[in-house]
Amino acid sequence: MSDQTIAAPIDDDQQERGFSRYQSFLIALLAFTQFTLILDFIIMSPLGAILMPSLNITAGQFGVAVSAYAFAAGISGVLAAGFADRFDRKQLLLFFYVGFMLGTVLCALAQNFHVLLLGRIVTGVFGGVIGSVVLAIVTDLFPLQQRGRAMGVLQTAFAASQVLGVPAGLFLANHWNWHICFVAIVGLSIVAIAAIAIAMQPVDAHLKLQHDSNPFRHLIATVGQPRYTLAFLVTTLLATGGFMLMPFGSAFTVHNLGIDIVHLPTIYLVSGLFSIIIGPLVGRASDAFGKYPTFAFGCVVTVIMVLIYTNLGHVSLLTAIVVNVLMFIGIFSRMIPSQALMSAIPDASQRGSFSAVSASVQQLSGGLGSVFAAAIIAEDPDGSLLHFDRLGYIVVATTIISMIAMYFVQRPIARRAGRRIV
Protein backbone atom coordinates (compact mmCIF):
# COMPACT_ATOMS: atom_id res chain seq x y z
CA MET A 1 0.00 0.00 0.00
CA SER A 2 1.30 3.42 -0.89
CA ASP A 3 2.06 5.67 2.04
CA GLN A 4 0.14 8.37 0.19
CA THR A 5 -3.00 6.35 -0.42
CA ILE A 6 -5.11 4.53 2.16
CA ALA A 7 -8.04 3.36 0.06
CA ALA A 8 -6.76 2.69 -3.46
CA PRO A 9 -3.20 1.34 -3.52
CA ILE A 10 -1.76 0.92 -7.02
CA ASP A 11 1.05 -1.10 -8.50
CA ASP A 12 3.47 -0.07 -11.25
CA ASP A 13 1.36 -1.61 -14.03
CA GLN A 14 -1.73 0.32 -12.93
CA GLN A 15 0.36 3.49 -12.71
CA GLU A 16 1.24 3.00 -16.39
CA ARG A 17 -2.39 2.33 -17.33
CA GLY A 18 -3.64 5.39 -15.47
CA PHE A 19 -6.90 5.64 -13.55
CA SER A 20 -9.04 2.58 -12.87
CA ARG A 21 -12.61 2.61 -14.18
CA TYR A 22 -14.01 3.56 -10.77
CA GLN A 23 -11.35 6.25 -10.27
CA SER A 24 -12.28 7.74 -13.66
CA PHE A 25 -15.97 7.73 -12.75
CA LEU A 26 -15.30 9.17 -9.31
CA ILE A 27 -13.08 12.01 -10.47
CA ALA A 28 -15.69 12.93 -13.10
CA LEU A 29 -18.43 12.95 -10.44
CA LEU A 30 -16.32 15.03 -8.07
CA ALA A 31 -15.47 17.43 -10.91
CA PHE A 32 -19.20 17.85 -11.61
CA THR A 33 -19.75 18.50 -7.90
CA GLN A 34 -17.01 21.13 -7.97
CA PHE A 35 -18.58 22.60 -11.11
CA THR A 36 -21.82 23.42 -9.28
CA LEU A 37 -19.92 24.71 -6.25
CA ILE A 38 -17.56 26.93 -8.23
CA LEU A 39 -20.31 28.17 -10.53
CA ASP A 40 -22.39 29.29 -7.55
CA PHE A 41 -19.43 31.29 -6.30
CA ILE A 42 -17.98 32.79 -9.49
CA ILE A 43 -21.34 33.63 -11.06
CA MET A 44 -21.59 36.49 -8.56
CA SER A 45 -18.78 38.42 -10.23
CA PRO A 46 -20.15 38.49 -13.81
CA LEU A 47 -23.65 39.07 -12.44
CA GLY A 48 -22.40 42.14 -10.58
CA ALA A 49 -23.20 44.51 -13.44
CA ILE A 50 -26.80 43.14 -13.46
CA LEU A 51 -27.33 42.52 -9.74
CA MET A 52 -26.32 45.97 -8.48
CA PRO A 53 -28.94 47.96 -10.42
CA SER A 54 -31.56 45.20 -10.08
CA LEU A 55 -31.39 45.14 -6.27
CA ASN A 56 -30.35 48.81 -6.04
CA ILE A 57 -27.15 48.02 -4.13
CA THR A 58 -23.80 49.80 -4.15
CA ALA A 59 -20.42 48.37 -5.16
CA GLY A 60 -19.55 48.23 -1.46
CA GLN A 61 -22.66 46.18 -0.63
CA PHE A 62 -21.92 43.88 -3.55
CA GLY A 63 -18.40 43.37 -2.19
CA VAL A 64 -19.92 42.48 1.19
CA ALA A 65 -22.23 39.91 -0.45
CA VAL A 66 -19.27 38.31 -2.24
CA SER A 67 -17.03 38.27 0.83
CA ALA A 68 -19.86 36.98 3.08
CA TYR A 69 -19.60 33.61 1.35
CA ALA A 70 -15.86 33.51 2.01
CA PHE A 71 -16.11 34.49 5.68
CA ALA A 72 -18.95 32.03 6.35
CA ALA A 73 -17.02 29.27 4.58
CA GLY A 74 -13.90 30.04 6.57
CA ILE A 75 -15.65 29.90 9.93
CA SER A 76 -17.58 26.71 9.11
CA GLY A 77 -14.41 25.04 7.86
CA VAL A 78 -12.67 25.59 11.18
CA LEU A 79 -15.69 24.28 13.08
CA ALA A 80 -15.91 21.24 10.81
CA ALA A 81 -12.19 20.44 10.96
CA GLY A 82 -12.43 18.60 14.27
CA PHE A 83 -15.11 16.28 12.87
CA ALA A 84 -13.85 15.97 9.28
CA ASP A 85 -11.95 12.72 9.88
CA ARG A 86 -14.60 11.12 12.12
CA PHE A 87 -17.17 10.26 9.43
CA ASP A 88 -17.41 8.48 6.11
CA ARG A 89 -16.40 11.19 3.64
CA LYS A 90 -19.29 10.26 1.33
CA GLN A 91 -21.87 10.95 4.05
CA LEU A 92 -20.07 14.17 5.01
CA LEU A 93 -20.14 15.29 1.38
CA LEU A 94 -23.87 14.59 1.08
CA PHE A 95 -24.71 16.48 4.29
CA PHE A 96 -22.89 19.65 3.29
CA TYR A 97 -24.01 19.44 -0.33
CA VAL A 98 -27.69 19.43 0.67
CA GLY A 99 -27.10 22.48 2.90
CA PHE A 100 -25.30 24.24 0.06
CA MET A 101 -28.26 23.58 -2.24
CA LEU A 102 -30.70 25.08 0.29
CA GLY A 103 -28.55 28.21 0.51
CA THR A 104 -28.63 28.51 -3.28
CA VAL A 105 -32.43 28.29 -3.13
CA LEU A 106 -32.38 31.35 -0.85
CA CYS A 107 -30.25 33.23 -3.40
CA ALA A 108 -32.72 32.31 -6.15
CA LEU A 109 -35.61 33.72 -4.09
CA ALA A 110 -33.84 36.93 -3.01
CA GLN A 111 -35.70 40.17 -3.73
CA ASN A 112 -33.43 42.48 -1.72
CA PHE A 113 -29.87 42.79 -0.47
CA HIS A 114 -30.52 41.25 2.96
CA VAL A 115 -32.05 38.02 1.64
CA LEU A 116 -29.24 37.74 -0.91
CA LEU A 117 -26.70 38.25 1.87
CA LEU A 118 -28.37 35.55 3.98
CA GLY A 119 -28.33 33.19 1.00
CA ARG A 120 -24.61 33.81 0.42
CA ILE A 121 -23.88 33.15 4.10
CA VAL A 122 -25.78 29.83 4.08
CA THR A 123 -24.12 28.67 0.85
CA GLY A 124 -20.77 29.65 2.35
CA VAL A 125 -21.36 27.76 5.60
CA PHE A 126 -22.04 24.52 3.73
CA GLY A 127 -20.23 25.06 0.44
CA GLY A 128 -17.00 26.04 2.12
CA VAL A 129 -16.59 22.54 3.55
CA ILE A 130 -17.42 20.67 0.33
CA GLY A 131 -14.15 21.58 -1.38
CA SER A 132 -12.07 20.25 1.52
CA VAL A 133 -14.07 17.00 1.61
CA VAL A 134 -13.54 16.54 -2.13
CA LEU A 135 -9.79 17.10 -1.77
CA ALA A 136 -9.63 14.64 1.13
CA ILE A 137 -11.44 12.03 -1.00
CA VAL A 138 -9.01 12.56 -3.89
CA THR A 139 -6.04 12.31 -1.51
CA ASP A 140 -7.41 9.08 -0.03
CA LEU A 141 -8.07 7.41 -3.38
CA PHE A 142 -5.27 8.71 -5.63
CA PRO A 143 -1.54 8.27 -4.86
CA LEU A 144 0.82 11.24 -5.14
CA GLN A 145 2.18 10.12 -8.52
CA GLN A 146 -1.35 10.33 -9.98
CA ARG A 147 -2.54 13.31 -8.02
CA GLY A 148 -1.43 16.00 -10.46
CA ARG A 149 -3.62 14.45 -13.16
CA ALA A 150 -6.49 14.02 -10.69
CA MET A 151 -6.25 17.67 -9.64
CA GLY A 152 -6.02 18.68 -13.29
CA VAL A 153 -9.31 16.93 -14.04
CA LEU A 154 -10.89 18.48 -10.94
CA GLN A 155 -9.86 21.93 -12.08
CA THR A 156 -11.66 21.45 -15.39
CA ALA A 157 -14.72 22.14 -13.23
CA PHE A 158 -13.51 25.72 -12.96
CA ALA A 159 -12.98 25.86 -16.71
CA ALA A 160 -16.36 24.28 -17.43
CA SER A 161 -18.04 26.84 -15.20
CA GLN A 162 -16.39 29.50 -17.37
CA VAL A 163 -17.31 27.81 -20.66
CA LEU A 164 -20.81 26.57 -19.88
CA GLY A 165 -21.97 28.05 -16.60
CA VAL A 166 -21.06 31.72 -16.76
CA PRO A 167 -22.04 32.34 -20.41
CA ALA A 168 -25.27 30.39 -19.92
CA GLY A 169 -25.94 32.25 -16.68
CA LEU A 170 -25.35 35.63 -18.30
CA PHE A 171 -27.57 34.62 -21.22
CA LEU A 172 -30.38 33.65 -18.84
CA ALA A 173 -29.87 36.81 -16.78
CA ASN A 174 -29.90 39.06 -19.85
CA HIS A 175 -32.94 37.42 -21.46
CA TRP A 176 -34.99 36.61 -18.34
CA ASN A 177 -33.60 37.57 -14.92
CA TRP A 178 -30.66 36.77 -12.67
CA HIS A 179 -32.75 34.56 -10.35
CA ILE A 180 -32.84 31.86 -13.06
CA CYS A 181 -29.07 31.41 -12.73
CA PHE A 182 -29.39 30.15 -9.17
CA VAL A 183 -32.45 28.04 -10.02
CA ALA A 184 -30.34 26.26 -12.64
CA ILE A 185 -27.57 25.61 -10.09
CA VAL A 186 -30.14 24.08 -7.73
CA GLY A 187 -31.26 21.72 -10.51
CA LEU A 188 -27.69 20.63 -11.25
CA SER A 189 -27.02 20.12 -7.54
CA ILE A 190 -29.99 17.76 -7.24
CA VAL A 191 -28.53 15.63 -10.05
CA ALA A 192 -25.10 15.54 -8.37
CA ILE A 193 -26.55 14.66 -4.95
CA ALA A 194 -28.50 11.76 -6.46
CA ALA A 195 -25.39 10.44 -8.25
CA ILE A 196 -23.28 10.62 -5.09
CA ALA A 197 -25.93 8.88 -2.99
CA ILE A 198 -26.48 6.06 -5.50
CA ALA A 199 -23.17 5.43 -7.25
CA MET A 200 -20.36 6.55 -4.94
CA GLN A 201 -18.80 3.96 -2.65
CA PRO A 202 -18.14 4.74 1.03
CA VAL A 203 -14.83 6.49 1.73
CA ASP A 204 -14.12 5.36 5.29
CA ALA A 205 -10.70 3.68 5.36
CA HIS A 206 -9.35 6.64 7.32
CA LEU A 207 -11.63 5.78 10.25
CA LYS A 208 -9.36 2.84 11.11
CA LEU A 209 -6.48 5.27 11.65
CA GLN A 210 -8.21 7.46 14.24
CA HIS A 211 -6.54 7.61 17.64
CA ASP A 212 -8.08 10.74 19.19
CA SER A 213 -11.82 10.56 19.80
CA ASN A 214 -12.07 14.18 20.96
CA PRO A 215 -12.81 16.46 17.97
CA PHE A 216 -11.45 19.56 19.71
CA ARG A 217 -8.13 17.84 20.45
CA HIS A 218 -8.04 16.58 16.87
CA LEU A 219 -8.50 20.14 15.59
CA ILE A 220 -5.83 21.53 17.93
CA ALA A 221 -3.43 18.75 16.90
CA THR A 222 -3.90 19.74 13.26
CA VAL A 223 -3.69 23.50 13.71
CA GLY A 224 -0.77 23.21 16.12
CA GLN A 225 1.33 20.99 13.85
CA PRO A 226 4.45 23.11 13.06
CA ARG A 227 5.03 21.53 9.64
CA TYR A 228 1.56 22.64 8.52
CA THR A 229 2.08 26.32 9.38
CA LEU A 230 4.03 27.29 6.27
CA ALA A 231 1.51 25.48 4.07
CA PHE A 232 -1.30 27.53 5.61
CA LEU A 233 0.74 30.71 4.98
CA VAL A 234 1.11 29.88 1.28
CA THR A 235 -2.63 29.23 1.08
CA THR A 236 -3.26 32.62 2.71
CA LEU A 237 -1.08 34.44 0.20
CA LEU A 238 -2.56 32.71 -2.85
CA ALA A 239 -6.15 33.27 -1.73
CA THR A 240 -5.69 36.90 -0.69
CA GLY A 241 -4.28 37.82 -4.08
CA GLY A 242 -6.82 35.84 -6.07
CA PHE A 243 -9.87 37.24 -4.30
CA MET A 244 -8.71 40.82 -4.73
CA LEU A 245 -9.21 40.87 -8.49
CA MET A 246 -12.02 38.38 -9.05
CA PRO A 247 -15.08 40.18 -7.59
CA PHE A 248 -14.52 43.26 -9.74
CA GLY A 249 -13.53 41.47 -12.96
CA SER A 250 -16.75 42.05 -14.90
CA ALA A 251 -17.08 45.70 -13.83
CA PHE A 252 -13.42 46.36 -14.76
CA THR A 253 -13.88 44.68 -18.15
CA VAL A 254 -17.00 46.67 -18.99
CA HIS A 255 -16.15 50.10 -17.58
CA ASN A 256 -12.34 50.23 -17.77
CA LEU A 257 -11.51 48.05 -20.77
CA GLY A 258 -14.50 49.39 -22.70
CA ILE A 259 -15.96 45.98 -23.57
CA ASP A 260 -19.72 45.98 -24.16
CA ILE A 261 -21.59 43.96 -21.54
CA VAL A 262 -23.10 41.74 -24.26
CA HIS A 263 -19.57 40.49 -25.06
CA LEU A 264 -18.84 39.37 -21.48
CA PRO A 265 -20.12 35.82 -22.17
CA THR A 266 -17.72 35.60 -25.14
CA ILE A 267 -14.72 36.42 -22.95
CA TYR A 268 -15.71 33.84 -20.33
CA LEU A 269 -16.52 31.27 -23.03
CA VAL A 270 -13.19 31.52 -24.85
CA SER A 271 -11.16 31.73 -21.62
CA GLY A 272 -12.98 28.69 -20.29
CA LEU A 273 -12.46 26.66 -23.48
CA PHE A 274 -8.73 27.24 -23.25
CA SER A 275 -8.83 26.38 -19.54
CA ILE A 276 -10.47 23.00 -20.24
CA ILE A 277 -7.44 22.18 -22.39
CA ILE A 278 -4.91 23.78 -20.06
CA GLY A 279 -6.07 22.11 -16.81
CA PRO A 280 -5.31 18.46 -17.71
CA LEU A 281 -2.09 19.49 -19.49
CA VAL A 282 -0.86 21.32 -16.40
CA GLY A 283 -1.79 18.28 -14.28
CA ARG A 284 0.24 15.98 -16.52
CA ALA A 285 3.13 18.47 -16.60
CA SER A 286 3.21 18.63 -12.80
CA ASP A 287 3.38 14.81 -12.61
CA ALA A 288 6.04 14.63 -15.35
CA PHE A 289 8.27 17.63 -14.61
CA GLY A 290 7.56 18.23 -10.93
CA LYS A 291 4.93 20.02 -8.90
CA TYR A 292 7.15 22.87 -7.72
CA PRO A 293 8.73 23.74 -11.12
CA THR A 294 5.23 23.88 -12.62
CA PHE A 295 4.04 26.05 -9.72
CA ALA A 296 7.01 28.42 -10.15
CA PHE A 297 6.27 28.71 -13.89
CA GLY A 298 2.66 29.60 -13.05
CA CYS A 299 3.80 32.28 -10.61
CA VAL A 300 6.04 33.93 -13.21
CA VAL A 301 3.27 33.96 -15.82
CA THR A 302 0.80 35.31 -13.24
CA VAL A 303 3.10 38.18 -12.26
CA ILE A 304 3.58 39.25 -15.87
CA MET A 305 -0.07 39.00 -16.86
CA VAL A 306 -1.48 40.66 -13.72
CA LEU A 307 0.80 43.67 -14.28
CA ILE A 308 -0.43 43.92 -17.87
CA TYR A 309 -4.11 43.30 -17.07
CA THR A 310 -4.49 45.75 -14.18
CA ASN A 311 -2.85 48.58 -16.15
CA LEU A 312 -4.89 48.22 -19.34
CA GLY A 313 -7.09 50.98 -20.73
CA HIS A 314 -9.72 50.61 -23.46
CA VAL A 315 -8.80 47.63 -25.64
CA SER A 316 -10.36 45.52 -28.38
CA LEU A 317 -12.37 42.41 -27.57
CA LEU A 318 -9.58 40.23 -29.02
CA THR A 319 -6.96 41.83 -26.74
CA ALA A 320 -9.18 41.35 -23.68
CA ILE A 321 -9.66 37.68 -24.56
CA VAL A 322 -5.92 37.04 -25.13
CA VAL A 323 -4.98 38.70 -21.83
CA ASN A 324 -7.62 36.70 -19.94
CA VAL A 325 -6.47 33.41 -21.51
CA LEU A 326 -2.82 34.03 -20.64
CA MET A 327 -3.78 35.02 -17.11
CA PHE A 328 -5.73 31.76 -16.72
CA ILE A 329 -2.66 29.81 -17.85
CA GLY A 330 -0.75 31.36 -14.96
CA ILE A 331 -3.58 30.75 -12.48
CA PHE A 332 -4.01 27.08 -13.43
CA SER A 333 -0.25 26.48 -13.45
CA ARG A 334 -0.20 27.63 -9.81
CA MET A 335 -3.47 26.14 -8.63
CA ILE A 336 -3.11 22.51 -9.76
CA PRO A 337 0.45 21.76 -8.56
CA SER A 338 -0.11 23.67 -5.32
CA GLN A 339 -3.12 21.49 -4.49
CA ALA A 340 -1.17 18.34 -5.33
CA LEU A 341 1.71 19.45 -3.09
CA MET A 342 -0.58 20.44 -0.22
CA SER A 343 -2.33 17.07 -0.36
CA ALA A 344 0.97 15.29 0.32
CA ILE A 345 1.67 17.19 3.55
CA PRO A 346 -0.77 15.83 6.19
CA ASP A 347 -0.78 12.39 7.80
CA ALA A 348 -3.52 10.07 6.57
CA SER A 349 -5.40 10.40 9.88
CA GLN A 350 -5.43 14.21 9.55
CA ARG A 351 -6.24 14.66 5.87
CA GLY A 352 -9.83 15.72 6.42
CA SER A 353 -9.03 18.18 9.20
CA PHE A 354 -6.00 19.56 7.35
CA SER A 355 -8.09 20.08 4.20
CA ALA A 356 -10.87 21.72 6.22
CA VAL A 357 -8.48 24.10 8.00
CA SER A 358 -6.70 24.85 4.73
CA ALA A 359 -10.04 25.60 3.05
CA SER A 360 -10.98 27.85 5.97
CA VAL A 361 -7.71 29.73 5.72
CA GLN A 362 -8.31 30.09 1.99
CA GLN A 363 -11.85 31.39 2.39
CA LEU A 364 -11.08 33.76 5.27
CA SER A 365 -8.05 35.11 3.43
CA GLY A 366 -10.14 35.50 0.30
CA GLY A 367 -12.82 37.33 2.27
CA LEU A 368 -10.24 39.70 3.70
CA GLY A 369 -8.80 40.15 0.22
CA SER A 370 -12.23 41.18 -1.09
CA VAL A 371 -12.70 43.62 1.79
CA PHE A 372 -9.24 45.15 1.29
CA ALA A 373 -9.89 45.42 -2.44
CA ALA A 374 -13.23 47.14 -1.84
CA ALA A 375 -11.46 49.61 0.46
CA ILE A 376 -8.82 50.38 -2.17
CA ILE A 377 -11.13 50.54 -5.18
CA ALA A 378 -13.03 53.74 -5.93
CA GLU A 379 -15.72 54.31 -8.53
CA ASP A 380 -15.90 57.15 -11.03
CA PRO A 381 -19.30 58.67 -11.85
CA ASP A 382 -19.07 56.93 -15.25
CA GLY A 383 -18.72 53.56 -13.49
CA SER A 384 -15.01 52.99 -14.16
CA LEU A 385 -12.90 51.63 -11.30
CA LEU A 386 -10.01 53.65 -9.88
CA HIS A 387 -6.81 52.27 -8.29
CA PHE A 388 -7.21 48.82 -9.90
CA ASP A 389 -3.48 48.88 -10.68
CA ARG A 390 -2.74 49.02 -6.93
CA LEU A 391 -4.54 45.72 -6.51
CA GLY A 392 -2.29 44.31 -9.22
CA TYR A 393 0.86 45.31 -7.35
CA ILE A 394 -0.41 43.62 -4.18
CA VAL A 395 -1.22 40.43 -6.12
CA VAL A 396 2.27 40.45 -7.65
CA ALA A 397 3.86 40.79 -4.20
CA THR A 398 1.82 37.93 -2.70
CA THR A 399 2.60 35.74 -5.72
CA ILE A 400 6.36 36.25 -5.43
CA ILE A 401 6.34 35.56 -1.68
CA SER A 402 4.22 32.43 -2.17
CA MET A 403 6.64 31.12 -4.81
CA ILE A 404 9.53 31.42 -2.35
CA ALA A 405 7.55 29.95 0.56
CA MET A 406 6.30 27.01 -1.53
CA TYR A 407 9.90 25.92 -2.11
CA PHE A 408 10.26 25.31 1.62
CA VAL A 409 6.83 23.65 1.79
CA GLN A 410 7.84 21.05 -0.79
CA ARG A 411 11.25 20.25 0.73
CA PRO A 412 10.03 17.67 3.30
CA ILE A 413 7.95 15.99 0.58
CA ALA A 414 10.98 15.93 -1.73
CA ARG A 415 13.19 14.48 1.03
CA ARG A 416 10.74 11.61 1.55
CA ALA A 417 10.99 10.92 -2.18
CA GLY A 418 14.80 11.17 -2.11
CA ARG A 419 14.86 14.27 -4.29
CA ARG A 420 15.70 17.95 -3.96
CA ILE A 421 12.56 19.20 -5.70
CA VAL A 422 9.34 17.29 -6.21
Automatic annotation (TrEMBL):
It is a multi-pass membrane protein. InterPro entries: MFS, MFS_dom, MFS_Efflux_Transporters, MFS_trans_sf. The chain crosses the membrane at residues 25-47, 59-80, 92-111, 117-138, 150-170, 176-200, 228-249, 261-282, 289-309, 315-333, 354-378, 390-409. Its main location: membrane. Keywords: Cell membrane, Membrane, Transmembrane, Transmembrane helix. It comes from the Bacteria. It holds the Pfam family MFS_1. SUPFAM superfamilies: MFS general substrate transporter (SSF103473). One of its GO terms (molecular function) is transmembrane transporter activity. One of its GO terms (cellular component) is plasma membrane. Residues 26-414 form the Major facilitator superfamily (MFS) profile domain. It is found in: Cell membrane. This is Putative MFS family arabinose efflux permease. The lineage of its organism: Bacteria, Pseudomonadati, Pseudomonadota, Alphaproteobacteria, Hyphomicrobiales.
